[in-house]
Amino acid sequence: MLLTRRLVLSLFALAPAACQAILPTGPSNVAQGRYYGTSEPEYDDFFLRLYRLQVALKDAPKRIGEPRQQVADTLGVGADPEEIRTALAKRVSELQNRGIRYTVAHTDETHPPTLIVTGNPTGKDFELKGHLEGGLKSAGELKIDITAWQKELDELSPKESTLETNVNETFASRSEGERSEITRNLSDGQKIITLLVERTRDLDHATTDFLNALGAALGEKQLEPVASESTADASGEQPEKKAKKGAKAPKAAPEPKAPKPAPAPKAAPTKPKGAGPKPPPAPKPAPAPKAAAPAPAPKPAKADTGDAPPPPKPTQGTAKPDFEP
């Protein structure tokens, strides 16, 4: 009896914990900036993309704040873009007196702006050059990323609404508590999307103001894309790879010279001269000329010219007495 009472009390003690496991309370994983998975590809794709955006935008302010502060410190002013523009414009006139000029160069929206340097800066001028280059690169790359983030956020917002509507149907085999947890993370995801949209807008303004301040003070120049780059873009290959291919082209030229099969045709004419179409009879005509050159025939001729006296000798029958006198 006592054991039964203890068992009942223990079950009552565990009841709140069990309910909490079925229907969790507190902020969701998405609300805490954590990744949340459901083992359903379409839903997990949404949560993964949202998580990556949260991580990227968390560190994004440093990418514009730090380089802007470095330029401001070098100029001895505050980090406000207008203060930077005024101080930098003043420095530009001083640089020109020393034969130095900095210009902001643009190519297209897919590349950050760069700094064109005229003259030979040293000391503080060289230090300012380094901060300007770093600021243009960091702010330009951030500007490109912001454009991509805004596009992705525009896609995720309507997708969340569709996914949340289909939770009960997609996860019909799951428990009510699991479906509730999925819905809660989706709902918090929509709130996070709203916050991220505002953050990207603020970052876009800060980045644009900084780049405009540098461009207004230094002057801007639009550069045409290099021919090699445009060709690479059209083919989908990098210019370096194309240059290597071009360098290998002359090496391919000797290949036509290499056709060593040329000796084959040379042997071909000799074969038909020997014995018609059959290649093997070609060596057989070789012995024919050897037989045709019977050297013995001319040899008797030589005997006629050099040994003419001997024939008459046997007719006389007395060769010895003729030679003795």
What distinguishing features does this structure have?
325 residues; mainly alpha; 3-stranded mixed beta sheet; 70% helix
Structure description:
- The longest helix has 43 residues.
- Helix 2 crosses helix 3, helix 2 packs parallel to helix 6 and helix 4 runs antiparallel to helix 6.
- By secondary structure, the chain is mainly alpha-helical.
- It has 14 helices and three strands.
- Strand 1 and strand 2 form a beta hairpin.
- The protein has a domain of 186 residues.
- The N terminus and C terminus are likely disordered.
Which SSEs are present, and which pair or pack?
Elements: H1 2-22, H2 41-75, H3 81-97, E1 101-106, E2 114-118, H4 123-165, H5 167-170, H6 176-218, E3 220-222, H7 227-235, H8 239-252, H9 254-257, H10 263-275, H11 287-292, H12 298-306, H13 312-316, H14 319-323
Parallel strand pairs: 1-3
Antiparallel strand pairs: 1-2
Helix pairs in contact: 2-3, 2-4, 2-6, 3-6, 4-6
Quickly describe the structure:
The chain has about 325 residues and is mainly alpha-helical. Helix content is about 70%, strand content about 5%. It has a domain of about 190 residues.
Parts with pLDDT < 50 across at least 5 consecutive residues:
1-23, 228-236, 267-277, 288-295, 297-309, 311-325
Distance between the termini: 172 Å
Strand content is: under 5%
User: What structural class do helix, strand and pairing data support?
Assistant: mainly alpha
SSE order, one letter for each helix or strand: HHHEEHHHEHHHHHHHH
Question: How many helical elements?
Answer: 14
How many strands, which pairing sense, and closed or not: the largest β-sheet? Answer: 3 strands, mixed
What is the strand tally?
3
- CA gyration radius, whole angstroms: 48 Å
Helix content: over 70%
Morphology = elongated
Spatial order of the strands forming the largest sheet? 2-1-3
Quick check: average pLDDT? Answer: 76
